[in-house]
Amino acid sequence: MITIIFKKNRYIKTPHEMERNLMTNYRKTDVLITSVILIASVLCYVKFYPQSVFSAEERQKFIPDPKKPLPFSETRMEFFEKAAVVSDAAPCAKIGRDVLKKNGSAVDASIGALICNSVVNMQSAGVGGGFFMTIFKNDEKKVYCLNAREKAPSNMMSDKFMNDGDPVNNSVMIALPGEIKGYLRAHQKFGKLRWEKLVQPTIDICEKGYTIGQHQHNSMILNKDIQWDENLSAVWMEPINITLNNGDQFYSFPAPGSGPLVSFILNVLDGYNFTKESRLMEEENVLRIYHRIIETFKFAFAKRPELGDPNFVDVTEVTNELLSKDFAKLVRLKVKDKTSHDPAYYGLRSNSINYDQGTSHISVIAENGDAVSVTSTINKQFGAAKTGKRTGFVFNNAMADFSFEFLKNNFDLIGADINKPEPRKTPLSSMSPSILTDKHDNVKLVIGGIGGPKILTSIAQTIMRLRWLNNNLKEAVDTPKVHHQLDPMTLVYEYGLIDELVQKLKALGHTTYRKTDSAVYVLQRENDKIIGIHDSRKPGGGVYGI
Length: 546
Prior knowledge:
Elements: H1 15-32, H2 36-48, H3 50-53, H4 56-62, E1 78-80, E2 84-87, H5 90-101, H6 106-120, E3 130-137, E4 142-148, H7 179-190, H8 195-208, H9 214-219, E5 224-226, E6 235-237, E7 240-243, E8 249-252, H10 259-270, H11 283-303, H12 316-322, H13 325-334, E9 358-365, E10 371-379, E11 386-388, E12 434-437, E13 443-450, H14 454-468, H15 473-478, E14 482-483, E15 491-493, H16 499-507, E16 512-514, E17 519-526, E18 529-533, E19 542-545
Parallel strand pairs: 5-11, 15-16
Antiparallel strand pairs: 1-18, 2-9, 2-19, 3-4, 3-10, 4-6, 7-8, 8-12, 9-10, 12-13, 13-17, 14-15, 17-18
């Protein structure tokens, strides 16, 4: 049994919540002219489906960008002495914390939380999908990457992808799940507690029921039954890493993940020598910094179509280029502070790639200094909208992450033949679970995100604000973010960015579009404390620690 409880917020302060609340009030006025019954229906729909009711154009028409910065959300930073877990599902973060209390490892805690996600976050992740896990072992001062992402079936037939007229939710879009095999591989190598101790807390949740969060309610759709085989997969991979100017080491997930792109963005921004003195105070600095960030994003997404599954394509050259300080320097020389350019200027070569959407993230720091950053997905919200007859778990539609000539993806993104579907191949992913260590190889930051291609840009902006703009963790997470993926040639920004800045960015040639649909989950170690905060952009998250 699942207990459904909805609670109204006591007050709304988050920028995207303010936008939604204001939009509701505008529509209330219109609806009052019609009928009381229609009012009730519309207001109920607005509360739980705000993005569905109002287009970005409607929101910008009724709710203009603010003239001055808005207050931050009511979400607080939490401070811990020994260990912590943050997740986009609070009950799962609590389970992870409880595992650590029982002397479980960081990997144990992440597995316990991931299993919980299969229930509490079933619209975003679960055993019917797959994950990327980045692990830091403090005693070895070494980072491991586990690829438990879905793979294309060995008997796949590409001519079947449009049979039912719905390529995204079609059953043939289900790839071979890697989640369970990933749990086993991670536990075999780094687990401490017995398996049943990791599973039992989620069994208890299923038996007792839980409160459905707003995000899960918003995503609810009907699921049909299918049958499935058990050909699962998970492999260990070498992490990619770069050294930043102050000696910090940034580790992230290699292709088919997007860690190389996040690393490239950080390399480019690191060379601009942003400091706490450039705190976005002066208007000229504000515009220049944002413009440089946006231009860097464009160069990053121009390179993304060159990445793919290394078991099928050689990505060594493009990865080395993205990690190169010399290439970052070359890109900085190409960034012009006074103008934007057409896509070809940034090196764009291809025109069809796909990105995951239904995603969940967990960050863990254990008392012994170990850390885990893991991002799990079933691709679209509720995946293929199919469940297994035997298990009832929701299956992924990860095949939609491949590049198809006939299929435009959920994010209107670009790609190449490198990411075409092939038997046993893993599709390219935007997931980038990452860990930052200091020059003494101690964990400083564990970070990851949700939101398809915005994962890359959100992680980069959060780290940039923490390292170079003297923000605390709350400021770095809450500050409105920008995003540009080169195709479409549109700058996406979040509500809360002041109108004056938006207008100046338009004057530089950026076409703008306002939308909020990403979040980051971060743990920071600072001065012998662990600081955690969950991103209020996705309701239902939480951070727990010891």
